Each structure stands twice: as structure tokens, then as C-alpha cells.
Amino acid sequence: MTSSVNGAAASNLTHDDISIATRAADKFTQLYYTTYDSASRLADLPNFYRPSSSLTWNGNPLQGADGVRQLIENMPPTKHEMQSFDCHPIPGSSPPSLLVTVSGTVIHGKPLPSGQRSKTIDGQARVFSQTFMLVPDSAAAPSLPGEPAKYYIGADALRFVG
After folding, report:
1. Number of helices and strands in the chain (H, E)
2. Residue 4 lies in a domain
3. pLDDT tens, position by position, for the chain (162 residues)?
4. Which residues fall in a coiled-coil region (predicted)?
5. CB contact at 8 A, 77 and 57
6. Burial of 138 (0-12, 13-18, 19+ CB in 10 A)
7. If DSSP codes are grouped into helix, strand and coil, which group holds residue 7?
8. Is residue 132 in a domain?
9. How far apart are CA 134 and CA 25, in angstroms?
10. Dmax over Cα atoms in the chain, in whole Å?
11. Angle at the Cα of 83 (from 80 to 84), degrees rounded to 5?
12. How many domains does the chain have?
């Protein structure tokens, strides 16, 4: 079903569309942060991006898989804890692109023992907010009906909150 909004065609999203998009976002976020925190992240994390993907990491712009590699190659190990995520399907394509906002904490380096403070950020949990624009991956094998589509990261913006 299509409706017109301000003269432009827009698709109406059904409850099923939203449910499938939410499952896709949940699957994506679990896989993304597990990969980010893994020992093989330098080889695996860039696979989530395409050369045209844009990335802004705490105000620093980077481009595509090479930009992600550049960002993480000298970064200490990480441990992300996702607190929440929100997903909004963007009408206009089938499957729709997804706007996913994640909030949580991340520790860079080894966690500090309980009660111990450091003068640097290493080992301390930092609150972050990260927003992804996930784009359906037309090169991926088609999903089965009712299953989430395969996506890549078209845009990624992370900002430390505290």
C-alpha cells in the first residue's frame, strides 16, 4: 500500500514490517558488538561496511571498510555492553533501510578492579550512543519470507556521552 505525503510517494509499514525490522536490528547489534569485541575484529568488522559507507567516530570522519580498519588497528581490546537499541524502518524500499540507535557502555583495555580509578580512560566504562543507517544488501543471498534481510552499514556515527 502506498500513500502520498507532501506530493511524494511513501510506503506504509505494517506491524509485520516493524517486527521483522526489529528482529534484523537485534540480530545486527548482537553480531556487530560481538565482532567488535573479538580478537579477530580487525579482519571481521570491516565486512559490515562498504567502500561508500561513512563513519563518524566521536566527531572524526572516516570512510568505508578502510576507515574502520584504520580506526581499530591501534585500539586496545574493547568490551561493549549494550543497554538498549531502537529501530525505525525507513519506507521506500523493500526491505526497508533501518535507522538503529544504540546506547550502552564500552571499556577500552582491561577493566579496572572494582573501586579503582585511573587518570586515563583506559579500563573505565564510557557511555556511548551509536546510530547506524543499515541498507539492504542486494549482493547477499535472499532471505526466506518472514526472515530479516541482510544489511550493511551505510552510515555509522558514534559519540561518547560521558
Report:
1. 3, 8
2. no
3. 333 333 333 457 778 778 888 888 999 999 999 999 999 999 999 999 999 999 999 999 999 999 999 999 989 999 999 999 999 998 877 778 999 999 999 999 876 666 666 555 667 889 999 999 999 888 776 666 656 678 999 999 999 996
4. none
5. no
6. exposed
7. coil
8. yes
9. 9
10. 59
11. 120
12. 1
- What does the alpha-carbon distance between residue 20 and residue 96 come to, in Å, rounded to a whole number? 10
Full domain range(s) for residue 68: 12-160
Determine, yes or no, domain membership for 72. yes
Instruction: Report yes or no on 1 lying in a domain.
Output: no
How many whole angstroms from its chain centre is CA 67? 15
| Strand-strand pairing, 151-160 and 49-57 | parallel
C-alpha cell at 145: 519470507
pTM of the model: 0.82
Task: Give 28's Cβ-side CA count (13 Å radius).
Answer: 32
Kind and range of the H or E run holding 14: none
